[in-house]
Here is the input.
Amino acid sequence: MQGNLQEIDIRSLLQLVALGQRTGELLVVSSTKVQSWFVFFDQGRVVYATGSKTGPRRLQDYLYYYRRRTEEGTKTFPAPEPGVSEYSYLWSLLGQGLLSPDQGRHLAAKMIHESLLDIIGLHSGDFVFQVSHALTPQIIQLDLLPLVSSLVHEAQEWKKFDPYIKSPDQHLLLRRSAALESSLSVPSFQFLAQAIRRKPSIRQLARQLGRDTTTVAKTLYPYISKQIIQATEDVSTHPAASQRNGNYGSLKKLRVVCVDDSHAICKVVECILEQKGYEVTGIASPLRALNLLFQLKPDLILCDIAMPELDGYQLCAMLRQSVQFRRTPIVMLTSHEGLLDRAQARIAGATDYLTKPFQELELVTLVKRYT
Here is the structure.
């Protein structure tokens, strides 16, 4: 099932998934193709949701809340290893006993809520829903219908903040310190002033406070409307700014081919890498890919492991037998992080591997490493 959001709205789409008790993954791409989101379902219930611009940083923001709640803020959490997905990072903290199961469920619910709120108000863009095996292991399952109803109400609340607050990704600047101090108790002023000095977005502040963005925006609204605090666009995330500051503007037109039987994965890879200046081709059939790869001559190949007809290990090994692809970087896409998968990938001749679901920063960092 795929289409655009002018044909069907997100609310109706989520209701179809819930009522049909479907298991699979939903990819939503904004009309500007600047951002995308993945939502995972198990029999009509949502188990995880993430955006292309989140990454482990989102979870680290949430962990700040737990650090503050410990005595003198002494609790520490190890930073995620490079390339580790947000979901894997969360499971790692649970496995090490650094988070309790209740805390893990609380965080997973927060991340689902945040991502779904982002997409519930979209009126244009594209979507792909693909039936697949349920995401495992799972931390939580949430009933979708009551959650959607609550999110629709929140999206309506955000409209009341306009024009002073337009997005949870706007960053906060303190303009009139004396005016803010006179409006708050001393502890509240000291905490908020200190937090705003770091120029967080409304979203980041909400995570660190353990609150939802709507509640935080509602609290800040009187101060923002009076220009005591300013909510400003984060220009570093604007596509034009990326070209100006040189983050991605220097990339050559390199070609990346993604071989994955999941149309959703191909779509998100195209969405992320094309805006960074790459030419991207998604191929759903590994057998068809064998022929097309020799014609396309890519600079990098992303290859799923679990595919019908021909798995990723076999495809990688066959390509390595050709002189044309002996030096071409081949990165395996996997839903697992086990040592066996890594070993098999190396034996087949893979250069590296990337765990699904992945975020934009993880994918771009890896692609830049090998191109």
